[in-house]
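Service request form, structural biology core

Requester: graduate student, group of Dr. S.
Request type: structure prediction, single chain
Budget code: on file
Notes: please return the result as structure tokens.

Sequence provided:
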Amino acid sequence: MKVIEKGRPLWLVMLLLLLISNTMLYRTQFGASILPVEKDGVVLGSLIDFMIMLPLFVMLIMRKFSIKTAIAVAALGCILARLMIPSAMLEPYVAVTWVGLLAEAAIVTFEILLIMTFIRYIPKIMAFVKSSNIPTVFSFHYAIDKYVKKNPMIQILCSELLMFYYALFAWKKKAPEGITLHKNSSYIAFMVMIIHAIILETLGFHWWLHEKSMILSIVLLIINIYSVFFFLGDINAVRLNPVHVTDDAMYISLGLMKRAKIRFADIDYVCEDRTELEKKVSKDTLAFIAREFEEGQPQMILYMKNPIKATLFMGIEKDYSKVAIRCDQPGELKAIIERRMAYIEAI
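Core staff response, request fulfilled:
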């Protein structure tokens, strides 16, 4: 697994090269000029790229290996092949691509049934969220796990719904009292700057690109619009979800990007050593440090007895052995943690 983790940038580069090289081969004049007269071998090689290498690189990047993922990505590769390779060249292998399309249709049908199940339980999910005392970024996903079968598609859909909720409907909500992570930082100014940059780039670069490639300009426009909604949602998610403390755990999140439930019984000790805090945050450390113009340093690092599971963007879960925190009330937070740790040890 360490080799796979270290090779992640390489797998991403290989994936991009696969897509770019096949696009150039079939969709540019340069590619047409280097194609041999007998094209069957080249097309077969491209099909291998899309149906075997593409799933392999995607799973290496995701670090998730399963038959379902392989089939789903291979089926998607068949669709890409049909879109990218001219139909006249693809004709000898058209049966292969039809198999991929049928597999993709079966997967999509299954996912639609799951989504319909999710929609049916929305009233119960909303009731659970409203009655819960824990932050919405936690209670919403807990409700999903309670009423709907856990599935990557459902996790992605829920993450998107939560993002649009915070981006569009949460501006009038008053931020609850509690320990916050952003008020003493330039986080909001930093995010507003990014949003302005995206809007200016969209207004300027998009019109120039539209004359060169309409499809590419539309894709980039959609990505830019989504990015603006995401950053707006992230601002509200940070603002409305301060650290929530219960008798046995604290719920801490940093917008839509990361969240974790940290049980006080799982904390080994709290480190405030300046030498340790000034070191670069390691890969096994979950950092709750608001993004700003200058890179912030943690005020404390929680060393865990056992790795904790954190939920990242799109519902991705990862284990961490340390938690770095920078907040607006560090003394208050440390006092709460140590008091709860002492109480639990005394029981």
